[in-house]
Design goal:
- Two copies of one chain form a homodimer.
- Chain A is mainly α.
- The first copy, chain A, is built from six helices and three strands.
- In chain A, a hairpin with a 7-residue loop joins strand 2 (81-85) and strand 3 (93-97).
- The mean pLDDT of chain A is 93.
- At the A-B interface, helix 1, helix 2, helix 5 and helix 6 of A face helix 1, helix 2, helix 5 and helix 6 of B.
- The structure holds a DNA duplex.
Chain lengths: 146, 146
Amino acid sequence: MALKDRPDVSALTEIGIIAQLSNAALERSLPDGMSAAQFGVLTHFMRRGGEESPAKLASAFQVTKGAMTNTLQRLQAQGFVAVVADEADGRKKRVSLTAEGARAHEAGLMALRPRMEGLREAFTDREFEAALPFLKALRIWMDENR
Amino acid sequence: MALKDRPDVSALTEIGIIAQLSNAALERSLPDGMSAAQFGVLTHFMRRGGEESPAKLASAFQVTKGAMTNTLQRLQAQGFVAVVADEADGRKKRVSLTAEGARAHEAGLMALRPRMEGLREAFTDREFEAALPFLKALRIWMDENR
DNA sequence: TGTTATTGGTTCAACGTTGAACGAAAGGCC
DNA sequence: GGCCTTTCGTTCAACGTTGAACCAATAACA
């Protein structure tokens, strides 16, 4: 009984459930064939633009290289991403967003809108902002002490 | 750019990473062959005791029945849990903790201690408690609006 | 220079999960 | 009684992930 009543355990439990539900909701809302991981990569390119190597993407998303290989292969198969060899460094590849990838991201955003609006009706920006510093600190600690 | 700067998206992103890191840390700390899911079920029985049907466990852990079948089969194979048919209701089974399961949970707790202590050195109970109401509300909303 | 270490990317088996299908048992309702 | 509907648990393919092995290319250093 001492276990789950502890606030740290409770918080991590809640966080785990939220993550699961949020990811499931994301995948369910997204157009068919687009996973949350794929949408994340598309979002990354929409925000940052340009090119990125698979290894950089993997570390940006806290994911193994193998997982990123998988995600990129699926994105490439759908034509959402272009992958070319880096002639300056034979080990690397350069990944970039295609026009079709941008369209797919836009479609994903549209599909997500109703749910995001519902979320923003239920909670205020201020509530999320209030929670953010602690979440960020916790994430950083988890990252440094893994 | 408007996307990830939004506090709701940021919060969910942080929550997702925390959940991933926390689960990974949990699995790494636990004795070999014990998954986070299995440890969760053991913990449930240590706290509540008695018997529980697989369906109840599945809904308590927000997991599909198939996933719970899998977890229980592995627990049973290790002798951590006893599963018997419910003679009152031919559809149900009754799951209960074995003495060996209790020992395994104890061992899991021990293995987890260093990490939990580190976490409690880095953050105070008050910080977790302060974050809890919002997390709980968010979890409930996600659950109701899935 | 040559040798060793590191980095980048792929592949593979294993895991835990979902979602769907299924059969068996129980409940609800004329 | 009989017929739907719901509940329970299992099975199966598919997915995304990890961790490890591996090879190729580069970097570091003697």
